[in-house]
Design goal:
Elements (H helix, E strand, L loop, with lengths): L1 E8 L3 H12 L2 E7 L8 H4 L31 H14 L6 E2 L4 E6 L4 E5 L4 E4 L1 E4 L21 E4 L13 E5 L3 H10 L5 E5 L6 E2 L8 H9 L1 H23 L5 H17 L3 H6 L12 E2 L3 H5 L4 E4 L3 E5 L2 E4 L4 E3 L2 E4 L13 E4 L5 H4 L18 E3 L12 H21 L5 E3 L1 H15 L26 H9 L6 E3 L1
Parallel strand pairs: 1-2, 1-7, 2-3, 4-18, 7-19, 8-17, 9-10, 9-17, 10-13, 11-12
Antiparallel strand pairs: 4-5, 5-6, 14-15, 15-16, 20-21
Helix pairs in contact: 1-11, 5-6, 6-7, 11-13
Bound molecules: NADP nicotinamide-adenine-dinucleotide phosphate.
Length: 482
């Protein structure tokens, strides 16, 4: 067994795979600090009706632990959460997790990371892995009177399951992937549903068949079949989608745009509603929403679309800009997340006086999304400016963990103890990234959570293959080893 100790922050999808791969590589001193009382990250937090992943399930699975039992091509969130729990159990990762330990600070003392949690628990390790997720902190809208509402009000990621919605008038603010899934699912379950839409979204039609018992048996008895199925999904997803969005002029982007337009034209009958739902920017400029049931929901008589601005929230509902009141019993805020709050609010510092707060004062940056100059032995999974746009974040995390293991192996074989990237490597990467981003569809004239304060997409602007290639072998000249 290798002696080094690792602390992993977060027991979500990325933290779990980090622990599995570290164990596999022969490390036994691994501690996972998890702020909540159970694992699962985003799939633990998001339990709203209709929650699912828009990456096909056979693709949104660990490459080493395919699951023959996925119920649907795009399986529901609860199944995904169970999958992570089962994998953590099978690989005995759950034994490594310390629950209810929210990391409040991490300080590198020159040799080790000293980590503190909200309970006063102290721990230390040579290596610190931040697996704290991308969309983690809810973004609450700054709407006048929001605290006055006397009905139930909650963010989509804080769903209140105690309320029986059947006889209630429900409002949903936000028409991103989350709002669309909620509206699609709730439309048949509530008395009335009002979607408050600030900006319409293009909707890519989703075909989501169930896997039959025969399919599942086939996958179980013949894992090669399952592997082939995964590879097929990967090719379709990557070539038709992931690689399209990074080239706004690509023929695949045209196909996406035409498919979305055709979906709107053929699914919405009421001409007035159709115009209200028609975006005025290119498909996939915002994160593309995929749904096979949203337009159907919008056609239902108990579902209303309000696209006049919101003036204020009052005790009994939402007042629109024209002073019309929409009375509501429940208001759901599907208003997204603080996409740039990587690691924060924890304090991350070093004995040399560096702090993440000041390093990321303008915006978060990391060399190849994994390492940060001036922060030795700190590794981020699904960190800033990485491939968050329409890739399977599981693939991303797996490649990143392998990359980190290669860096550590290089340290060990050369007698070094510390590694961090050079400032020049980060700056060079950022310059190339900003340049490449100009070709993406994300900068073709919309507002989205992909865009940073400068309007530059905080995302990987190249095809996935390039990410795979740069992760396959670190460029050791980009690092300082000591
Ligand atoms: P989002 O894409 O950021 O959408 C937030 C929505 O809230 C937008 O429609 C936004 O309008 C609206 N909004 C925000 N503040 C508002 C305000 N003050 N007044 C009125 N409207 C306001 O958030 P999300 O839907 O939670 O999705 C975030 C990401 O999570 C997705 O892009 C995706 O990456 C991931 N996700 C994936 C899935 C899936 O796999 N299917 C499901 C859910 C989430 P504007 O457009 O005008 O800003």
């Amino acid at each position: 067994m290798k002696p080094h100790k690792f602390i992993i922050i977060g027991a979500g999808m990325a933290g779990i795979v980090a622990a599995i791969k570290l164990k596999e590589a022969g490390f036994e001193h691994i501690e996972i600090l998890e702020k909540a009382d159970s694992l699962g990250g985003t799939w633990r937090e998001n339990t709203y009706p209709g929650v699912a992943c828009d990456v096909p399930s056979h693709l949104y699975s660990y490459s080493f632990e395919l699951n023959p039992n996925w119920s649907h091509v795009f399986s529901p969130g609860s199944e995904i959460l169970n999958y992570f729990k089962e994998v953590a159990k099978k690989y005995q990762v759950d034994d490594l997790i310390k629950y209810n330990q929210e990391v409040t600070s991490a300080h590198f003392n020159g040799n080790e990371w000293e980590v503190k949690t909200s309970t006063g628990f102290l721990s230390s390790a040579e290596y610190l892995i931040g697996a704290t997720g991308v969309l983690h902190h809810p973004k609450y809208p700054d709407i006048k009177g929001i605290e006055d509402f006397k009905g139930e009000i909650f963010h989509s990621s804080r769903w209140n399951h105690d309320i029986d919605l059947a006889s209630l008038r429900v409002g949903v603010i936000g028409s991103g992937s989350t709002g669309v899934q909620i509206v699609s699912e709730l439309s048949t379950q509530v008395k009335s549903l009002t979607l408050f839409q600030r900006t319409p979204q293009w909707i890519f039609p989703q075909f989501n068949p169930e896997y039959s018992a025969h399919d599942i048996e086939g996958f179980t008895l013949d894992p090669t079949k399952m592997q082939e199925h995964r590879e097929l999904m990967s090719t379709v997803f990557t070539e038709g989608f992931s690689n399209a969005v990074v080239d706004a002029d690509s023929p695949q982007m045209k196909v996406i745009e035409e498919t979305c337009l055709q979906n709107l034209e053929s699914s919405i009958k009421d001409p007035e509603l159709k115009e209200k739902l028609r975006p005025k920017y290119r498909a996939a400029c915002k994160r593309l929403v995929i749904s096979g049931s949203f337009y159907e929901a919008m056609n239902r008589p108990n579902v209303k679309l309000e696209c006049g601005g919101i003036k204020e929230i009052v005790v009994n509902g939402v007042k629109l800009d024209n002073d019309r009141l929409v009375e509501l019993d429940v208001l759901v805020l599907a208003t997204g997340f603080k996409a740039d709050a990587f690691l924060r609010p924890m304090e991350v510092s070093t004995c040399e006086g560096n702090s993440i707060e000041s390093a990321w004062k303008s915006r978060p940056e990391a060399y190849l999304a994994v390492t940060v100059p001036g922060f030795p032995n700190l590794f981020l999974l699904n960190g800033p400016n990485g491939p968050v746009g329409n890739f399977s974040l599981i693939d991303v995390a797996e490649l990143q963990v392998d990359y980190v293991l290669k860096l550590i192996s290089h340290l060990d074989s050369n007698g070094f103890k510390k590694v961090s990237p050079t400032q020049a490597a980060l700056e060079d990467f950022e310059a190339q990234r900003v340049e490449a981003a100009k070709k993406t569809v994300w900068v073709t004239g919309c507002k989205s959570w992909y865009l940073d304060d400068r309007g530059i997409p905080a995302a990987w602007p190249w095809p996935f293959e390039k990410f795979r290639q740069v992760m396959s072998e670190p460029d050791y000249s980009a690092f300082v080893f000591s």
